[in-house]
Amino acid sequence: MVGSNLPKEEPMKDGMFVFDAAIHVQDFTDRQIKEGDRSGRVGILRNQLTGFIDLTARKGPPANAGFHTPPDVDWAHSTLFEKSDTDLAMACSVPLFSHWKAGLGPVELSYELCKRDPKRILLTGGVDPAYHGLDFALREMERQVKEWGAVSMKFYQYQQRGCSWRADDRDIQRVWHVVRSSEPTELALPFTKHRIPFYTGSGPGHALRGR
Fold first, then answer.
1. pLDDT, position 204
2. Which pLDDT does position 11 carry in this prediction?
3. pLDDT band at 188 (very low <50, low <70, confident <90, very high)
């Protein structure tokens, strides 16, 4: 599936093919703050990342964090393929909903970027079986693959205290069956599972606690 999307142009970096396997389309604007959320995590992370980029962006195009405005798909595409050596990229969703209405990296925004250049940008979908429920997660996985062409899937956990899950949880086995099966009715996808307590403001000791 990936091979069919490879660009036909010659590789850009000294004859080497450059694949950026993890790019994110994230929305840090205030419209993303969940109603009633007084933690300030959206604004805190926005300010932290703005300062980080200003400090570290010493090569390449000028820093343009743009965290106070909605994501600019055209700017992202230009930065990836016109102002850098990238040949192919994977737009990875970040299905973390603890403080963000649509997720830290909404899969919808990742899909919008993929539509901008489907031959050079692939989609990693994303769900959290514990946060939205297992049945919803399975339906959403199928939708992202069949409607949006997702070629892999990312699973997050620990949106908030009491909402974590273990990879060996019996209820979760239905997810692994779907993504790993080679049957035509299943998805047969590569997948990743993240444990990122930083975004929720929790300590690492809680990140893998079972339900």
1. 32
2. 60
3. low
| One-letter-per-residue 3-state SS of the chain | CCHHHCCCCCCCECCECCEEEEECCCCCCHHHECCCCCCCHHHHHHHHHHHHHHHHCCCCCCCCCCCCCCCCHHHHHHHHHCCCCCCEEEEECECCCCCECCCCECHHHHHHHHHHCCCCEEEEEEECHHHHCHHHHHHHHHHHHHHHCCCEEEECCCCCCCCCCCCCCHHHHHHHHHHHCCCCCCCCCCEEECCCHHHHCCCHHHCCCCC
- Residue-wise pLDDT for 141-169, tens only, equals 889 988 999 988 888 776 766 667 777 77
Residue type at position 146: K
Q: What is the pTM of this model?
A: 0.75
The pLDDT value given to residue 111: 96
Report how far residue 48's alpha carbon sits from residue 39's, in angstroms, rounded to the nearest whole number.
15
